[in-house]
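Example S7 (structure tokens).
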């Protein structure tokens, strides 16, 4: 019998998980995206796009679509959907697993200024004008209007909206995975003196951290929001084992 898994995605890990489960067979796979990217990459399974309407909406979806298992493979900074997943799974009586890659760890030579959130990053940018690489996605760029003295390089997958227009900024559109040598070249070309990054973890966007290390640049590193409390796995291998165990327990 097929088991219906709903994967909350928006990350490369979610796509990889869907592909691996499709390869195993025996799964009906639905992958859900928030709809932030206009042209999502192809992926295995059925795709659905857009919010559910909060935890209750997600719980309704779980029941209506007869979902057997929910996997939260969203971005570590997407805290609202993760909290909704936790509540919805409890409401609908559907088991929940989370795939959460480990954060990057500070290494010798790193000049990290660790802050808990975007407000902390704004606080850390007090002081003299510098050339700042904002590598935090597009959604929170507007907050940096509070620090207009800097010259910014802003990189995002989708264009920053009018609310994110900073007085002195260059905007580039690009999507990982990135290479450390190319990141070093980018930082040099724009004379970057400081990087602002979210501690996303994973390899796709780590190159800027490696480049900062190589060039001795400081990084304002924004820490993750607290985890949702779902049973969490740090690797694809670990979550696949857990799903296999879950199927075995069901006698499949
Ligand atoms: P969020 O704040 O956790 O979610 C906001 C709402 O979007 C949710 O309440 C939900 O709407 C909807 N949603 C989110 N993920 C969904 C999914 N997989 N399927 C269906 N609906 C979904 O997440 P976010 O707005 O996407 O992002 C928040 C933060 O995470 C930002 O800081 C962003 O930069 C970061 N992020 C980064 C990446 C990346 O770099 N690849 C990707 C995603 C997010 P309903 O309540 O209506 O269900």
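Recovered sequence:
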């Amino acid at each position: 019998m097929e088991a219906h898994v709903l994967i909350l995605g928006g990350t490369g890990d979610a796509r990889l998980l869907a592909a691996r489960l499709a390869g195993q067979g025996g799964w009906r796979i639905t992958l859900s995206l928030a709809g932030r990217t206009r042209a999502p990459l192809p992926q295995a399974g059925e795709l659905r796009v857009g919010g559910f309407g909060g935890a209750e909406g997600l719980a309704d979806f779980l029941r209506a679509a007869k979902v057997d298992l929910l996997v939260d493979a969203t971005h570590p900074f997407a805290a609202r959907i993760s909290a909704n997943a936790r509540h919805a799974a409890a409401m609908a009586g559907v088991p929940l697993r989370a795939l959460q890659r480990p954060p990057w760890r500070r290494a010798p030579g790193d000049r990290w200024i660790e802050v808990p959130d975007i407000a902390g990053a704004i606080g850390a940018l007090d002081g003299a004008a510098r050339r700042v690489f904002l590598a935090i996605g597009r959604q929170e760029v507007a907050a940096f209007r509070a620090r207009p003295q800097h010259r910014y390089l802003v990189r995002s997958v989708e264009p920053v909206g009018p609310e994110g227009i900073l007085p002195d900024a260059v905007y580039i559109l690009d999507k990982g995975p990135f290479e450390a040598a190319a990141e070093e070249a980018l930082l040099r070309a724009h004379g970057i003196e400081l990087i602002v990054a979210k501690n996303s973890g994973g390899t796709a966007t780590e190159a800027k951290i490696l480049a900062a290390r190589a060039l001795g640049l400081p990084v304002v590193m924004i820490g993750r929001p607290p985890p949702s409390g779902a049973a969490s796995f740090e690797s694809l291998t670990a979550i696949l084992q857990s799903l296999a165990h879950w199927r075995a327990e069901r006698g499949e």
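Notes on this example. Helices lie at 12-24, 54-64, 79-92, 118-124, 180-189, 207-215, 236-249.
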